[in-house]
Amino acid sequence: MTAPFYVQGAWFVGAALFIFGLKGMSSPASARRGIVIAGYGMLIAIAATFLVPGLHNLGLIALALVLGGGAAWISGQKVKMTDMPQMVAIYNGMGGGAAAAIAAIEFARGDAQGLVTTTLAVLGALIGAVSFTGSCVAWAKLQGVLRKAYRLPAQNAVNVTLAAVAIGLGLSMIALAPAQPQLIIGFFVVALVLGLIVTLPIGGADMPVVISLFNAFTGLAVGFEGYVLGNPALIIAGIVVGAAGTLLTQLMAKAMNRPLSNILFTPMVASGPGE
Amino acid sequence: MDGLLALYIFMLAAFTGYEIIAKVPVILHTPLMSGSNFVHGVVVVGAMIALGHAETPLEQAIGFFAVALGAANAAGGYVVTERMLGMFKKKEGTQ
Question: Could you give the ipTM of this predicted complex?
């Protein structure tokens, strides 16, 4: 928000390159070029962020970038082609986790103020947390760590109840802002459990569609946290992915000749918070 | 940020995302999912700012976690998408 114009400009260029890149990726001839263009956008956006005035913990930031980015880079290079979908799932889940963690910091600092900001922070945290644990389950299933589909008795009722509790806690966080630490922790725990419980009963064959849905979720979460942070680049990238991912999920479900509701089994819960 | 201005950004971005995907061939569904997964890795920028403003050890810990996860999202998403599209190109060439 208070970033100087050259940082804002770099973020703007980054957001523009993301859109060009995605556009390129939507056609076979230019797909490879598209990801490279988007990659440059990411590098520019990250490099410019170091120039934001008044940032502390620069050493920690660099260390986290190297550790997280390096580990993912190496694992992404090593993985077999057939294991790609679960890698997409786990990286996507990490993005959702990052969005939820940003919200957690904002809550802990009491920085999220005002009705709209608090609401979007809570919404982004909920969606991001669900995407985080849900994607981890998707990874575990495709990787063969979890072989069975665990179905609770009255699964739908459990899903609806958990979602209602999560939304209720979220609403009380909005009403009571700045919220108590116990409330914040409770909210995150319920949101994380919700992601687990919703995804556990879904079979491995349906996972690509579910991963695509969580991809759209993470996009929305990033967009909402972008609003909280006052960063248009995050809003644009997040919402573009949220919209594109939602449509892509529907297209994939259609290509499998199954309605999305059939795959998720409980459309109310699975798509409720995202829309 | 101005709330209404942000609303306009939300709307335009949503339309943009929709239009980009609207006519994509089925064979590109998975790479495009992976590519959009990479794009929301820009969350790392937000995480860097959050960690940069963190003061207490708890905030620093959560912020460190956020930056590491966001960086993994970006780096992993890029590598995986690039490899997928590389394979795709080879397949196109042989046909």
Answer: 0.90
